[in-house]
Amino acid sequence: MVALSRRSALALAGAGVAGSAALVACKSSKPDPVTDAVAFTGEHQAGIVTPAQDRLHFVAFDVITKDRDRLVQLLKDWTAAAARMTQGRDAGEIGAVAGIPEAPPDDTGEAIGLPAAALTLTIGFGPSLFRRFGLGARQPAALAPLPKFTGDTLDASLCDGDIAIQACANDPQVAVHAIRNLARIGMGVVSVRWSQLGFGRTSSTSTGQATPRNLFGFKDGTRNLKAEEPDLLREHLWVQPGDGPDWMTGGSYLVTRKIRMLVETWDRSPLAEQEMIIGRTKGIGAPVGMADEFDDVDFTSVGADGEPLLAPVAHVRLAHPDTNNGARMLRRGYNFVDGSDGLGRLNAGLFFIAYQRDPRTAFIPVQRSLSGRDELNEYIRHVSSALFACPPGLSGPSDFWGKALFEYE
Amino acid sequence: MVALSRRSALALAGAGVAGSAALVACKSSKPDPVTDAVAFTGEHQAGIVTPAQDRLHFVAFDVITKDRDRLVQLLKDWTAAAARMTQGRDAGEIGAVAGIPEAPPDDTGEAIGLPAAALTLTIGFGPSLFRRFGLGARQPAALAPLPKFTGDTLDASLCDGDIAIQACANDPQVAVHAIRNLARIGMGVVSVRWSQLGFGRTSSTSTGQATPRNLFGFKDGTRNLKAEEPDLLREHLWVQPGDGPDWMTGGSYLVTRKIRMLVETWDRSPLAEQEMIIGRTKGIGAPVGMADEFDDVDFTSVGADGEPLLAPVAHVRLAHPDTNNGARMLRRGYNFVDGSDGLGRLNAGLFFIAYQRDPRTAFIPVQRSLSGRDELNEYIRHVSSALFACPPGLSGPSDFWGKALFEYE
């Protein structure tokens, strides 16, 4: 029984191509942003401005222990495992643990031979965690639970959570392996509250990425915040000194919304109506009246009939920064299909993910604008909602997830 | 409003890399088995011995019309759309249909700019279909509903179906787009009964593919039937003349089983016990007592203690052709994670897919062997089961899915 790391297993398996589309497609000696490792430590957590990977496994945990020390130890253990897995290694040894032949393996094995696949693991803490463990005074004002919005049809069992971990990777098996092993390590301390798989990222977070499409068939996230815009990121994405408690400086607030799309209803509406509702063309993705995807939205032009070319209730108008006091977020959502709904329809939609400096001036006002007037509401249902405080990145090997939150004077 | 095909949209979008890991990874002018198109017509349906793609969207439909002609028309419409989509084109025009400006688009748009991604669409007909539309006398004896097996915990709403379509592709957005558009085209004639997404194929169907791993972390499908073994395929996979009704000659019978894996329980068991239960090592995947993955299973050797090295209840022993009168199937299953189960656990497992010449001498006896004795049963639950007759491939443009079944003297 030989202890295997993913790298040594990779060597044993030769090309080690199992399950990886990218590796099957080409072999290159150059660094490959699709399969290579993303740095785990740094000023900010990876998985936020990191060029959006293609696959998602998101999990929200309930903390089931009352023992603060056990929770802190888990955060240390998770950090160590995350540092390994994001670098393409196992969560722990596959072989029997030294001296304890009856111990289960410290890694579950399904990612043996797979590359790092640009895996990022991003942690956040939910408002409910701050009601326990003596953390009450540490809760940022920006982490107040989200208000109810018009039309919300939330399923409480799919909402909130004490701790969230977002796993993004270019191979779903790598993202699933990471979350599954973190859940395994957390046994007895945390319990999976809800979990979501996603594919087909619906936003670009880097100017090097083409704009992908959501399940309404439209390009999504054309005007997203991008990694290459440091001034905008400072203003809209990263928590700045003085914004709130120090432990969040350099961090960001994460809002997730699982948005069921009634695709069957949408698919019955005429193209012209779809384009009116979105405010962009379906093919090119250009704003109504414009020629190119990246042209500015034209709010004011009127047609021959004297009506505005861009409908007053068009989604791009209602969601635009100019309509929301300049509010911007970094979105990195994913499409999902969770089987069918028992009523003859696919259970499909968008798992919306947005990072921001302060939800009180970003997600909340924008969603108020959308939930009241957006014509899209006829075709969507918000079924899950959550908010998490994602601390800054780890400074080095002695740092761990939540250290500055839990270890204070 | 311009009518766009996926190819023309691709040209407009330049590199058109949205959502495709493989395309981001490399650009090559050579044919690429990961992104290129698989032929839609041929002696057998594609998607069976086609090298297993990385992603799955499987759907089972109920037929909700009583009108035989409407059903046949749908099969013709589906065939036309499938022929287009498998070649990297849209299901129909994206733009307004000529002369009917209020018509919805004939394609939903989310795959614009994506390559064919080796999409295959494979159709099968379930036993329940043969109770209607005058098809009673056309039902093959091999298509009798599956028996109950020891330990089955099936959810009837996830079982069976009149018509199944398996979409496999190397991009999940392409597979989802195909099923979603077929469901759209079928509105009013069929209704989605159940649907399943999968990732990380758990079997190789070609000798050129490495053996992937299931969510127990073990290599799965090492001894699968392979495309390069025509004699074995004739004997075990393809329905032969005289086996039953002519319309199935050259076809194959498809068994699907959704197998929930209790991964949290499995992850607590020692490596030695996991390897005993499977009968292979976890790292290399070699049969117990052997050195290499592809070594023959050693049924007879005993250890120093006089006990068989390969446990009497090891999975590889119980599932082996030598234990089941030579029974073999072509497996092309996928891993799945469907969120969490409300009890703090991931809802994860294997969506088992197996094609065979006759389930009465293949899946049924093998599953009887496994369901009675396999130690794995402690860690798995069969929650969905279905059987479909998949006819042979289409002969050309005038042929359509089900033609030989529905159009007879």
From TrEMBL, chains A, B:
Location (main, coarse): other
SUPFAM superfamilies the record matches: Dimeric alpha+beta barrel
Keywords per UniProt: Heme, Iron, Lyase, Metal-binding, Oxidoreductase, Peroxidase, Signal
Domain Dyp-type peroxidase N-terminal, first and last residues per copy: 45-199
GO biological process: iron import into cell
Boundaries of every Dyp-type peroxidase C-terminal domain copy: 211-393
Cofactors that this protein relies on: heme b
Cellular location(s): Cell envelope
Cofactor comment: Binds 1 heme b (iron(II)-protoporphyrin IX) group non-covalently per subunit.
Catalytic activity of the protein: heme b + 2 H(+) = protoporphyrin IX + Fe(2+)
Isomerase recorded as keyword: no
Function per UniProt: Involved in the recovery of exogenous heme iron. Extracts iron from heme while preserving the protoporphyrin ring intact.
Protein name, per record: Deferrochelatase
Organism per entry: Actinoplanes aureus
